[in-house]
Amino acid sequence: MTPETAVDHQRLEAELQALLGPHAAVACCSTDGDVSTLAPVEHLAVARAIAHRQKEFAAGRAAARIAMQRLGRPAVSIPAQDDRSPKWPDGIIGSISHSHATCVSVVALKLHWQAVGVDVETDNDLPRELWSSICVSNEIQRASTLPDAIQARWMMRIFSAKEAYYKWIYPQTRRMPEFHDVEIFMNATLESTGFFVHPLYGKSNGALPNPVEGKLMIGQGMVISLIIG
Question: How many separate domains does the chain show?
Fold first, then answer.
């Protein structure tokens, strides 16, 4: 597949909002952000970045501010912390992700949720040379039960689910798990609408919480994984 083009961001927002409920909000836009809209404290994070990265970063911050307004909160600046993760205002949790052409930001009220993680990928094949570094043996075995032509696209869904999980867990533990620290369970089909993340309790990840459920949305040439809870 080719990277997504001409994305209907309004429709994408409506579909994602339907998954979130009333205490969270989503905003979607292109990755061609306006760098001039960044507050000085935000621009510090990308001052030395290439132009494309600066535009992508500006798009993410703009989407996050729109989402905060949709929750009835002020559209304040969102600086980057030392670890480069967003520093959300008091009472707000959130997550930002970019694909080739689309930026998605989900924010929620901390009163109702402890963390949110979103990941957006182009609905392409996950290169086979990356499978062993990203996926555990059981995930690779389940992929092998699918027709050869769609195995690599299904593995992209596994990758996206793990990325969403890492964005969800990091604010809670301040520690980033490895790809092999969790196993993803989802239906062996390209039409899966959800997944479960199971920590694999080894010496490096004993602090991870119990299994968590995520949602998967496929459309407009994208794979979007979402965990909120």
Answer: 2
